[in-house]
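Entry, Tuesday afternoon. Goal for today is a structural model of the target with zinc ion bound, before we commit to ordering more compound. Inputs were pasted exactly as handed over by J.K., no edits. I checked the ligand SMILES twice against the vendor sheet because last time a stereocentre got dropped in transcription.
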Amino acid sequence: MGQLIYFCAGADAINLPTSPIDGLLINVLDHGSTPAKIKAARKMIRKANSRHKMEDSGGYPLLKAEEKGKVITFDPSLPLKNTGKALNISPQQVMEANAIHQPDIVIGLDWPIRKLETDIQKQLEFYKKLEFNVPWAFESFAWKNALIPSVQYFQPLQCYNLDHLDIYLNKIRGVLFDGVSMPVRNIKAAELALFLVSFYQRGITRVHLLGTSSFPVIVICVYAAWNLLDWVSLDSTTWRYAADKESFISPFDLSRTDLRAYVQVPATKLNPCPCPFCRGRSFQSIQAIAPRKDKLQFLREHNWLAIANLANELYANGYTIPNLEKELRFRCRNQRQVESLIQILSVVDALKDSDISLLQTVLASNPSGRQRTRLAGRQTSTKKCPRQPTGQTT
Ligand SMILES: [Zn+2]
């Protein structure tokens, strides 16, 4: 049995939720690149008083800079920066910035792979980024050890499939990571489950999923925390961005209700949220909150609790698959989604100690029988794989 921690990302000292925050995620470029940003981050960290602090490296802004065509440099002799036209970052600067805030967990510098369509495009992208991601893993780890040796080091993984994972982990042998972090952009639930089982079989016990709090991902994480890993964490800015769009997130299944002033919400649609902010309030009364900044603050507070409580409650009640299913069926309007998730988890549970290629084949055939899930990657098994040792330190 492991932990499941939902991290708050995208916060600042003003919009930070006032409810308890288990984990706070900050990042090097937004919170450690200038004296003003460092000062503001210190204020937020004090206010949040979270149990866990994690600092991300800046891979995501690097991906965005690439997409926008900014001038990108990796020169530690130039200032760490991310402006409208240019970005400069290096593993040394990432760890120097991490040393300022002394989080519990830091993430090495990586260059994320982009969302691409064809297998050839993906292969080219993986190998292009590998040229940066392999040396940066060694440099990030070395600078982490030199500057903040007691802090946990999570190795970011940029892989489209399990073959890429094999290649990357082989190339960074010697980097003694405490856990791994992985973006789940564009990964379906079955693919995520496959990656998590692969981590379990490799002896990787701590995993952070970057930038997500979707309902299927949380469900898969609940299973993984109870059955596969010692630590599963995830972060998202959804609570804030949904509020900015005046969206109300359901505390039961994270579905959204549009509460912009001109939207007609039927009077028969009741707000069942028991959170201290909503209690007794109708959707119409939330819609009418003025001025707008108060409405957004209300929605940020509610949305944060909706996601955090959902993760905590699913974890508390989902200690077996039947218990999890019971909880999901009670909460979720989309019963077909529940059925699909439970079928994926049932297959994972039956095959998690078998050769991973068997699980891959079965998941690719889609046990739910509704939509075909394509899982790129190896076609044949090359080894028996239950819980092979890795280079991780714990
Ligand atoms: Zn509420």
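The pocket of zinc ion is lined by residues 273, 275, 277-278, 302 (CB under 6 Å).
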